[in-house]
Amino acid sequence: MSPATREDVLNALAGIPDPATGKTLVSAGLIQGLILKDGHVSFAIEVPAERGAAAEPLRKQAEAAVNALPGVLSVTAVLTAHQPTSRHAAHARDPAPNPNGIPGVGAIIAVASGKGGVGKSTVATNLALALSKLGLKTGLLDADIYGPSLPRLFDIYQKPRSEDGKKLQPIEKFGIKTMSIGFLIKEDEPMVWRGPMVTSALSQLLFDVTWAPLDVLVVDMPPGTGDAQLTMAQRVPLKGAVIVSTPQDLALIDARKGLFMFQKTRVPILGIVENMSVFVCPNCGTKSHIFSHGGARKTAETLNVPFLGEIPLVSAIRETSDAGTPIVAQSPQSAEAQAFMEIAENIARSLTAPIRQPPRIVME
User: Fold this and answer.
1) Is 254 within 8 Å of 115 (Cβ atoms)?
2) d(CA 195, CA 201)
């Protein structure tokens, strides 16, 4: 059976009326970011902000209509609500924060970096596993909509189920609950979405997944200081942020930007992790500082934030990550895994502090 075409999908969506306008989803211009790849379909339904969650039945109807098409293997439809622009508007406000966070989740921590390529996802994954080994009920959310890493890191390529048709069931592996947009799309499928679509998708991964009960939810943030970071800072009361960097000056410049962004949104900084701190030769054991050494510790001291620890640059961490069996899961007694355990212990001690309320972010 050949995959459905773009025309097939639009024809299916053209048969669904928008109750607010009387037009179809297509003629009303509500379908955005339509992507088709080998039978996998994703798109966003963009509605005015005042409709918000009331348009959820429309999203489900659209998803069901496309899913019924011959040749469609999976459908990912997200609902995005945008503020209408007006020359007379004094403020444009983000969605109201949820002061209670995610029901049944004790603490949410963000693992972030100012730039890509510093091993943030590998660190986030192993820290989540380490927190679980400390006895905490742990979840791991891959918040990188454009470049999800969790499917490869955990070797998960199945689609999550929904028992009630409203919320997704997280996929459990290695004793923790996981969720990623990568579970819903093919590994090589690009997400060509604008900022509002990313914000909506991230909100659904936070609130439309049955995370509870959890002691801690670790969120692997995308690199940078963009929409996803602001969404996390504003929508949920974060316990704090962990900043990951390599020791070199170029990486630390961007790490500072990420740190300052969280500070501006009143998110506590749990500390800085220096990844790829030292290369250990697997044959002779000689240590080499390929990316310099100690830069993250010095930055932490300068900025008066905790330094959580160092992760060495060793092939075992890369090999186990590529194989979908992270080092803390596969070899928990190894020196590399113990480095993650020590950092997790430092983070766990911070989880007893009071949770700060999410700020209201107002754009002047």
Assistant:
1) yes
2) 10
- With cut-offs at 50, 70 and 90, classify the pLDDT of residue 74: confident
Q: How confident is the model at residue 146 (pLDDT cuts 50, 70, 90)?
A: confident
Sign of the torsion angle spanned by Cα atoms 13, 17, 23, 29: negative
In the chain, beta strands by DSSP E: 31-37, 40-48, 74-82, 92-93, 105-112, 138-142, 171-173, 176-180, 214-220, 240-245, 269-274, 279-280, 287-288, 307-310, 362-363
Distance CA 10, CA 24 (A): 10
73 is written with which tokens? 């293997």
In the DSSP assignment, the letter for residue 45 is: E
Amino acid at 147: G
All residues at 6 or more sequence positions from 158 whose CB lies less than 8 Å from its CB, including other chains: 171, 183
Instruction: Count Cα atoms within 13 angstroms, Cβ side, for 358.
Output: 25
Distance CA 52, CA 336 (A): 46
Q: Is 165 exposed, middle or buried (0-12, 13-18, 19+ CB in 10 A)?
A: exposed
Token duo for residue 315: 């092939």
What is the DSSP secondary structure assignment for residue 221, as one 8-state letter? P
Q: What are residue 20's phi and psi, to 5 degrees?
A: -80, -30
Helix axes 56-67, 6-13, angle to 10 degrees: 140
CA distance 41 to 36: 5
- Residue 110 CB partners (closer than 8 Å, separation 6+): 143, 219, 221, 229, 232, 238, 240, 241, 242, 262, 267
In whole angstroms, what is the distance from residue 237 CA to residue 354 CA?
Answer: 10
Mean pLDDT rounded to a whole number for the chain:
83
Burial state string for 283-310 with b = 16 or more CB within 10 A and e = fewer than 16: eeeeeeeebbbebbbebbeeeebbbbbb
Give the SS3 label for residue 168. Answer: strand
Please give the DSSP secondary-structure letter assigned to residue 74: E
pTM, two decimals, is 0.72
Which long-range contacts does 247-251 make (Cβ < 8 Å, 24+ apart)?
247/274, 247/276, 247/277, 247/289, 247/291, 247/292, 247/293, 247/294, 247/295, 247/296, 248/291, 248/292, 248/295, 249/292, 249/295, 251/114, 251/115, 251/118, 251/291, 251/295
User: What contacts 119, CB < 8 A, 6 or more positions away?
Assistant: 244, 246, 275, 276, 311
